[in-house]
Amino acid sequence: MNDTPRPTASSPRVEVVVAVHSETRPVERAVASALATRAPVRVTVVAHNLDPAAVRRRLGDLQDDHRVRIVELADGIGSPAGPFNRGIELATGEFVSIIGSDDSFAPGAIDAWLRVADEGGADVVIAPIRRTSGGWGTMPRVRPGRVHHLDGDRDRLFERAAPLGLFRRSTFGALRFTAGLPRGEDQPFGLHLWFSGASVSFDPAAPAYVEHGDQADRITHEPRPLRDDLMFVDAIEADAALSALPLASRRAIAARLARAQLVGGIAARATEAGIGEADREVAAKTVRRLERWAPGFRKILANRDARVLRICLDPAADPAALLAALANRGSFRSPAALVPSSLLRLLHRHAPVRSLIAARLVTRRLARAEASRAG
Questions:
Q1: Does residue 138 sit in helix, strand or coil?
Q2: What angle do CA 239, 241, 243 make, to 5 degrees?
Q3: How far apart are CA 306 and CA 82, in angstroms?
Q4: Is there a single domain that holds both residue 159 and residue 256?
Q5: Can you name the residues that pair with 100 across neighbouring β-strands?
Q6: Do 142 and 114 fall within a single domain?
Q7: pTM for the model
Q8: How confident is the model over 74-122, as pLDDT tens digits?
Q9: Domain containing residue 33: CATH number
Q10: CA dihedral (351, 352, 355, 358) positive or negative
Q11: How far apart are CA 323 and CA 157, in angstroms?
Q12: CB 122 within 8 A of CB 48
């Protein structure tokens, strides 16, 4: 006989917060996937700058489920921070899980994540991310065989920005997404989860958070000035707890931000004429700020990424040099992609060689688990 408590709206183990800003979003898919669980859950759908009636029309019969509530937030700000924060404020359950209105949980995901939490006494469970367009989202590059009691630095948890999965409300109930940012509102939030000293678990064999690619208006995919992409650096710099992290951790964080957000943002905007002057100035300013926050971080970057940053610091640099440095960023077969800018950091755990090996090992664990479920 199964003795799992039946879900009730008054005693959820997991509070699922769904932020929806457009009536074209398939919010019913996200809600249905959250309700398909044996664990007691409650789903809070936050209609963000949107008439709740439009959300109710999308949900249909799902709105009548006693585990679903719809709340309204009209703040006039085009950021998911507001609705996610509103849902966290309303939560009373043991864990909170956030989900975008265009995404879903794989079957059995919430139940599996709770088992991981219970087995490891975790305050945070990091979910695998599977993309319907193919492949996996960014994963923490954990040490081989590790699942529980992970370390933010040694297990490279900082590689994941989005806090997808579960986090314990009694530990992190006061934590909020950074309001007012066009992008990156989850960056400081995630760093607090990974580096707070709380117990973190990640099981690559668990069912995934599923990121769907069928919505053309995802906020995170809208083209914006580079400044908008990097405004979250202000919040990280101003955060006393993050600035008090050991230098090694700050260097690892800064290197990831430079590689993914800064160089990635430059690559997305580069044309034959290079990048615009405003974007170049923002890039140069960001390099200098990260260097002050985490001196020496560029030494562990791949030489090609470090070269991009050096070019951005030079106002007289030839645009052709930038394009050459950005060429073939998706390939890791060249020495420039594998060797860090300082040869002394060749075997550093956050330099390219060891980081790429760790990523490959995690991806294999994910693929084996997915194949096992499919078979």
A1: coil
A2: 70
A3: 35
A4: no
A5: 19
A6: yes
A7: 0.91
A8: 999 888 999 999 999 999 999 999 999 999 999 999 999 999 999 999 9
A9: 3.90.550.10
A10: negative
A11: 31
A12: no
